[in-house]
Amino acid sequence: LRFQSTAAEVPQEVSGAYLIETLEDSNFHTIHAKPVAILLKDMQPTRHISGERA
């Protein structure tokens, strides 16, 4: 089985984009709650909106 060298980069790119988007959305929720840091509870609305299960 042969793969192109770029095929190994795809999962890294996708997971990186997912993580960045999740943290950006969580930061948005955190700013509106006015705490000092992003907590797990701040990520839960983001994950719920995107249809993820905990």
From TrEMBL:
Superkingdom of origin: Eukaryota
GO CC entries: nucleosome
GO MF, one example: structural constituent of chromatin
Gene3D superfamilies to which the protein is assigned, alphabetical: Histone, subunit A
Family note: Belongs to the histone H3 family.
Official protein name in the record: Histone domain-containing protein
Protein's organism: Hymenolepis diminuta (Rat tapeworm)
